[in-house]
Amino acid sequence: MSLTKSALVSLIFMCYLTLGGCSREAPQTEEIPYVMVAQPLTMHHEKKSYAGEVQARQQTALAFRVGGQVTARLAEVGDRVRAGQVLARLDVSDAQLQSNAARAQLESAQAALKIAADELQRFRQLLPMNAVSRSQYDAVENQYKSAESAYRQAQSNYQVSTNQTRYNQLQANRAGVITERNIEVGQVVAAGQAAYQLAIDGDRDVVIGIPEQTTSAIKVGQTAWVTLWSQPQARLAAYIREISPAADESRTFKVKVALREGPSAIQLGQSARVFFDYSQPNVLSVPLSSVSAHEKQPYIWVLQPDQRIHKVPVQLGAYGRDSVPVLSGLKAGDWVVIGGVHLLHDKQRIHPVDRDNRPVKLAAGAQP
Predict the structure, then answer these.
(1) Residue 230 three-state SS
(2) Would you call 355 helix, strand, or coil by DSSP?
(3) Chain segment 309-366, per-residue pLDDT in tens
(4) How far apart are CA 187 and CA 19, in angstroms?
(5) How many secondary structure helices (H) and strands (E) does the chain include?
(6) Which is it for the CA torsion 334, 338, 341, 345, positive or negative?
(7) How far apart are CA 164 and CA 93, in angstroms?
(8) Which of 39, 73, 93, 206 is deepest in the core (most CB within 10 A)?
(9) Can you tell me the mean pLDDT for 118-136?
(10) Is the pTM of this model over 0.85?
């Protein structure tokens, strides 16, 4: 009986040791992930694209040089016109009356000049014979000069009235396409009031609007390329021809990009997109995948000599397509994490590798 009780006590003790050993947790080891790191670029390259519209390089507003009532409108928006083609006409009745009055004044002045010339010729013959006094001759000579001046004035007035009669016809000064019409038959227009807008045939520009922070990064003559919405696979060579010195109502700066090729196949008003590259020297930039943020404060993981990462707040510039410039908080020699930043935490130990999967190890005296 005592032997059975002793065996039972031994069994209970062994079970206690077994359960006690199972209750102890095995020590956990820290998992060290492999993380890709890279140094920031010292030259910030960025590719920008902006939507725009194809416009004629030269456009002109066509207007009558005299005022009057529109009696005929011979061109519409979209019409292709040639140089010298009549686009509209004004009522010529008043201009014709003025021309007739000017012609009558010219004929009257011409008759007065003939009489004065004949009188001067007679006095010129009588003066050597002392048949007339010198003062009488001078008076007749002055009358002739006055008649001659009056004739010239009447001649100029007649020429002006004749021109005004011709000005009642509005003609295209160059070949092109009518893009805007501002007159109707029966409308009374003033001299110089724009009647048509003409896009002159020839070179084409793509007009875009760029924000203020981009103006300092581009310059006139810079290479660009253009794609049309109707032909996205075609790339047309171009260059920046003009940059507006002031912003428009939308607070953007107008930029005109000239096409180097294919202007004849491009229609006015087509939608296009302009692409160009620009670089900012001495500006550090990192991939977009390196940046994270906490409470609207962006930060970057920077590798320390002890193979741990440190959260570094930074100030960023304008975001690009693949990278972003770092204005402050980072040095050129730092190694930054370029992927999986949302899975890491501060002072975490990592196995850093570069883009070629080679281990990265900082010198013992390096500063983070």
Answers:
(1) coil
(2) coil
(3) 999 999 988 777 788 888 888 888 889 999 888 888 888 999 899 888 898 888 654 4
(4) 107
(5) 4, 22
(6) negative
(7) 11
(8) 206
(9) 84
(10) no
